[in-house]
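Support case: user asked for a sample of complex input and structure output to validate their parser. Sending the pair below.
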Amino acid sequence: MIVDRRPLDARLYRAALRLCPGEFRRDHGDEMACDFDEARREAAASGGRALWVFRLLVGADLARTLVVQWLRTGLPVIGGAALLCTLLLASAVASAARFVSARMRIERLPSDAVGVVLLSVVAVMVIVATIVFNHWVHARPRRTGRR
Amino acid sequence: MAPLTPAVVHVLLALAGGARHGYAILKDVQGHLGSRLRVGPGTIYGTLQRLMEAGWVEEAGPPGADVDQRRRYYRMTRDGREALRLEVDRLGEVLDVARAHRIQPRGAKG
């Protein structure tokens, strides 16, 4: 069995790097881990307090990087937009079902059937909206103005 | 062109002297900023990635034989140098306006 002899914070940093989006992690994950090791050695040489300051700063930097890099993938926006569209459509279907039942003078809707229809619509919409928004976001050229 | 972010300006300044690897850029930027703004590897590589996508920075081969082979080296492109020059011009104009209003940078003489 291979034992990782790196310090605990270095192992935690490497584990946290796995939370980055795949492309960014493949491009820069190894370099970031390497830089962490080097900067950690320097901080440790300056004493315990410097090491703790270093850990806090690098932790905050990684947390900010995770947010920024995931936002840059567009996935949070895609997921939010897909969810919003789905909720809107589901509520529209529910309203239509109420309207139809009132028009047809149905006292009580067959709740199982309505439930199945609504769930099917929601599932299909989530899939369709995610595919559409994902395609739309990634088909657009990236902005190159403010960097 | 919109003003560049401080991280972009300092990464480009770090690359103005030639090709460097990520850790050297990080140390350089920390040297420029001192304790005013703390940057870490995530900020540096995120900025480098954006600059490479914009065509302002590109990957370069190692500058010599006795270099760390684990590292990737980056250098500024002509477009990057031009963007940096425009930003420095803009900052110079801001400084001129500030001086006209008798606002001197801390530590300035005169």
